[in-house]
Each structure stands twice: as C-alpha cells, then as structure tokens.
Design brief:
The complex is a heterodimer of chains A (491) and B (95).
Chain A: H1 8-16, H2 22-40, E1 43-46, H3 48-63, E2 75-79, H4 106-113, E3 117-122, H5 156-163, E4 169-174, H6 180-186, E5 189-192, E6 212-217, H7 220-230, E7 260-264, H8 274-289, E8 293-297, H9 305-320, H10 339-350, H11 353-366, H12 371-395, E9 398-402, H13 418-422, H14 429-434, E10 438-445, E11 451-457, H15 463-475
Parallel strand pairs in A: 2-3, 2-4, 7-8, 7-9
Antiparallel strand pairs in A: 1-3, 4-6, 5-6, 5-10, 9-11, 10-11
Chain B: H1 5-14, H2 21-38, H3 73-77, E1 83-84, E2 87-88
Antiparallel strand pairs in B: 1-2
Classes of the chains: A alpha/beta (491), B mainly alpha (95).
Amino acid sequence: MKLYEYTAHELAEMLDKKEISSEELTKAYYDRIREKDGEVKAYVSLMEDKALKRAKQVDEKRAKNEKVGKYAGIPVGIKDNMCITNTKTTCSSKMLENFVSPYNATVIEKLNDEDLVFLGKLNMDEFAMGSSTETSAFFKTHNPWDLDRVPGGSSGGSAAAVAADLAPWTLGSDTGGSIRQPSSLCGVVGLKPTYGLVSRYGLVAFASSLDQIGPITKDVTDSAILLNLISGHDEKDSTSLKLEKKDYTKALVNDVKGMRIGLPKEYIGEGINEEVKQAILEVAKKYEEMGATVEECSLDVGKYATAVYYIIACAEASSNLGRFDGIRYGYRTEKFENLKDIYRNSRSEGFGPEVKRRIILGTYVLSSGYYDAYYKKAQKVRTVIKDAYNELFKKYDLLLTPTSPTTAFKMGEKSSNPLEMYLADICTVPVNIGGLPGMNIPCKLDSKGLPIGFQLISNSFEEEKIFRAAYTYEQNTNFKANKPKFKGGDK
Amino acid sequence: MSISKEEIIHIAKLACLNLSEKEIEGYTKDMQEILEFANTVNNVNTEEIKETIGANDNYNVFRKDEVKQTVSKEELLKNAPSQDDGMFRIPKVIQ
C-alpha cells in the first residue's frame, strides 16, 4: 500500500511508532498531487515550503521525544474559504484572488496547536454558492470516479482531494449540503456538525445562520477524530455554544441494537433516482439486520425546505457580501471617477454570475414590499420545519435519507438552469434549516460505477448517534474496496 | 410570479451592481422561475408561528469590554487596494 492510501488514524500510528516520518509522508502527498491533480484539479494553491518545514519540525520534536499532538505531522487540505495567516484565501473568486489572510481561522489555530501540516487550499464554488464546483472563477474540479463529471459542491475540491488520495482528510464548509453532497458524489465520508459546535471565526461568511465547518474523510473514525480537533466554544464566534468537550471516538461502537431509525418517505419518492432509492432501501435493510429498528415516517414540510433555504441563504448572502466594496481589501476596479463607481464597478467586475444572481435574489426578498411575503414568511416556515424535526426525534434516534437525489452529473449538465442546480440540494438543505448534524456515508456504486451515499441525521448535538450508526455500517460492509479510476466517461 | 426588467434594474442598483442588457434579460427570466418556486413557502400555514432568526436559541451573548491586541493596523492595511499614511485611500467624496 502507498502512504497516501492510508487513513489519518493509520498514519498517526505509523508516525507514533516512528515507522515513517512526517517529511516522508508530506513529500508522498506532493508527489501524488503532481501526478494526479492535473486531472482532478482539486487544489487552488499549494503550501509546499511551509508544509515541509513544519513536517521537519514535527519529526525533530518526535526524535527528541518532545511532546507533540497525537495527530502531529499528518497533512490536511483546507477549503479556500478558511483563513490561514499569510496565505491567500480566494473563495475561488476574482474578488479575493489576491487576498492574503492577516489572521488564522479558529479551526486553523486548533489544527496548528496539534501540529498538523497544511498541504494547500482547495477549490470550491465561488463564495460556496453552487452544487458542482463549476462556479469557481478559476477552473472546474473533476470527479475522480469519472473525470467528465462534477465532484459536487460547493466543497468539491475538498471531497475530490480525499477521494483521489490527494489529502488524507480535509475541511469543508456546509451551508445547504456543501460538505455532504460532494462527499456523496465522490464516495467519501462528510459530516456537517450541529450549528454552533465548530467556530465560524475566519470562515468567509455566506449565510451566517446556516454555515458550518466540518470534516471530509476516508472513514468514520477519521471523521470523529477531526471533529474532536476542530470543535469547541470560541469567544470570537458568539453563535458557538459553550458545551462540555466530548471525545467523539468513544462513540465508535460496532453495535446498533436498539437504535430507532426513521425513514422519511418523501426522500425515497418522487425526484429521487431509482438506483439511489434502491440503495437507500438496502441500507435500511442492513440496519435492520444489524439490530436497529427502521420505520417509515413522514417529513411533509421538508418539501418547502429548499424554497426556505434559497430565500434565507440569499438574503443573508446579499447582506454579508455587502462588505466587498473595493476599499479595504479585495478587488478594486481600475475604472472609477468617484466613490460610487468604485463600489459598483468593483462588485460588478469582481463577482461571478451565480454570486450576482444570489445577491439579486437576496436583495429582492429583503426589499420593501417583499420582505414579509418572502423573508419573514420563510423564517416562520423555518420554525415549522424545526418543529417537525423535533417531533420526529421524539420517536427516532436517527433519520435515514439519500444524500443526493442522483449520483455525479455531467459537467455543464445543470449549469445553464439555476433552479435545476438548486434542486441538487433537496436532501441536504432541510438539515441546515434545522441546524442539525448530518453525515454522508458511501454505500455502493451505481450501474455507471459512480458512488451513492446515504445520509444520517440526528437531533442537535447528538453526533455520537451518527458516529455509532455510521461506524457500525462501515464495519459490516466494504465500500472501501472500490477505488476511483480517473477515467473519462462516455464522451 | 412576474418580475419586470425595471424591477431587476432597481434591485441591482440597491445591491450596487451594474448589469449589462444581456444580464438584465437573463436574471429577469431566472428570477421569475426562482421566485415562483420560492413562493411555495406561502402554502404553509404559519398562523401564530414565530420566526426563527438563528439556528440555535442564543440571543444576546455578552463579554467583557476589554482592549485586546488582535491584528496590527499595518497587517490589516496590507490588503488595501490603495492606502496613504495608515489610512484607506478613496476618491474625493465632497465635491
């Protein structure tokens, strides 16, 4: 087995026993990136010099038996909307193409404290707005399972990098499915934690009441470990909650006996691809065989979640993106005579078409005369959806749904129809509306050889239930035997 | 749900965006479709339902009002497209 094929927890053991060095491991990743990233195009920028320097430092510390973090020296890739000091954070936008972060995001500080090695920054939909990574202002990322298809989005670079062994694990961010949907399309494990569990400080804001950072990993164990490393209260993010620090690896128990799983019928019906639906029913059967009870249930109001999502997310985005004015940082137009020109021309030249579309939609639903009918109404329906989840979690420990209604689609297939693209998120957005945690777990390949994933959702701050059920499924099945082929599909 | 070109022009102005004739046409068509879809929220009965303003129930979070060193002015100004004497430089505002 090559070094880049191991999971992070396996690598940690090898490093601890001094069987390998961090420098050797980090070099293996950059060799792999040079070999394969030309096809996948997951990385926007690499941090090779800094990474090798840190790797050597960690090796020296280990050689001298100095105290280092348990995962010290393990490389990690970061979505390009999280700030790393003195490194570019572009959000895959012309607006921030030359922006150099003056500070670290809290998640980066936390990984720094553990001596992890940052490999580089990963491609995404511009400002995290998209479901295919096609709206990146720089280039499109390709799905390693079929290079003619999208990796999903918006954390497409983060998911494709893990699938293609270009990083052992990565961080993504999820506003309406941006960790889980690309994880599903790329056949990897992706977790969107409960809103408030991970600090958003230093994450470029898209929709502040929905955004959450989370891990994308090769297996469930790594997901629990990376969540351990990044979670916790942060006084710099007033929406992060003060909770007792948990060790999520304790939830990695191979047993689901007695767990109650609800299967909302709306997510195995209309609008869901037949092969995906069959795969979810097989997963449900597997859980029953393993000792859980699975029961059909209903989340009828879930059908309004996507509409609620696009109203609220775009409203918040139009407000958040007001800060890009060409004055303090970011792109400034060359064509101006007065201040108003700077604002207008910088924004018009700096933002791409999807970002403008969402700013327009958000400005519209917040504008006088439409505020009550759209924004206020959507906030009320958000309450109705949250209440419906609360009712379901009185009866069930977990909900089981597909993560994406289809497997990876062809590049360009949905990019001309915005509404069709928005519907790629129907299974994931309700979870953000509720502020709940949700995880994608890969389960099988479809007839085209593309990964299908299922989603487990729990009540807020009950990630342990997700980890336990996901771990049990993983231990009793073998999706990992499948590997991406890096081939173009039927052209 | 119908939205006119004039409304799109007005909204773009509020959002400080210039749109070309082609963009106005495209976004008008897109908004008609998206708003028709968004409008389905009005099918839900929300009588006596309160709005959700955040994902969790945190409302006011207080902290001590203390002076702390974060990032220096010099560091922060490095990203400014134009600066002068420790300040952001903009065109003349008073005519």
